[in-house]
Design goal:
The structure is a single chain. The protein has about 260 residues and is an alpha+beta fold. Among the domains are: about 85-150, Thrombin, subunit H, CATH 2.40.10; about 165-250, Trypsin-like serine proteases (Thrombin, subunit H), CATH 2.40.10.10. The protein has helices at about 5-35, 35-55, 70-80, 240-250; strands at about 85-90, 95-100, 105-110, 120-125, 130-135, 140-150, 175-180, 185-195, 200-205, 220, 225-230, 235-240.
Amino acid sequence: MEELTKTQIVLLVILVSFVTSIATGITTVTLMNQAPPAVSQTINRVIQKTIETVTPGNKNDVKTVIVKEEDLIVDAIDKNKKNLLSIKNTEDKSTAGTGFLVSENGLMIGASQNFSDKGDYYVSIGEETMKVKLVKSSDIGFAILQIVIPETSKTKTFEFSNLMDSETLKVGQNVIAINSSNVTIGTFTGFGEIEIGKEKIKTINDNLNLGKSYGGSPVVDTNGNILGVVLPQEEGTITIPSNYIKEAIDSLNKITI
């Protein structure tokens, strides 16, 4: 060592440091491979957190947002409550039934037994009163109604709920029934079948156990999309999939009132 020049000593130190670094790296990798999964996962999480902290302004950072199912349900209920309207008889101001909006031009769905061609109906939206016309009464038991927007009205379009493809329903999926005063949350248990007239109709089976007060009310998923409509029967209720509603609306083409 005494015979080495300063340059040689510096080079020797660099060489020793390099060899030590390689040895340390090999030892670390070996220990990581032998470590239990929980340990390596914890280390990975720490590293990931460190990266996000060091570069907080990087636009390429991926942020994970945890959304609770409880929050989704609350949002779905809030969204559809706004789209539920109480339809009243013009003659005696009594409530004929409930309708839920499914288009921006005021198309609504309700239970057929609550409405007739001879009926005169209206809805109150804000401070405005608008006429409601029965467009079609399905043999299955649901009605398609249309809000008639006055020319002088400030309202030109409506918020509405989307009709989901009911065939995408999965067993175990949460379903929510909403009427004007109550909410019931349950689970989809599969599709069933019921005979109405001479036609066999698919139904949505669940554990909601809904009373007749839910007649004409929507059943939605946690995203607020319409899965079906609740229809009153002689005993209890049934829920008809939204695809029947979509088919009926499609068959009307363009409705002009």
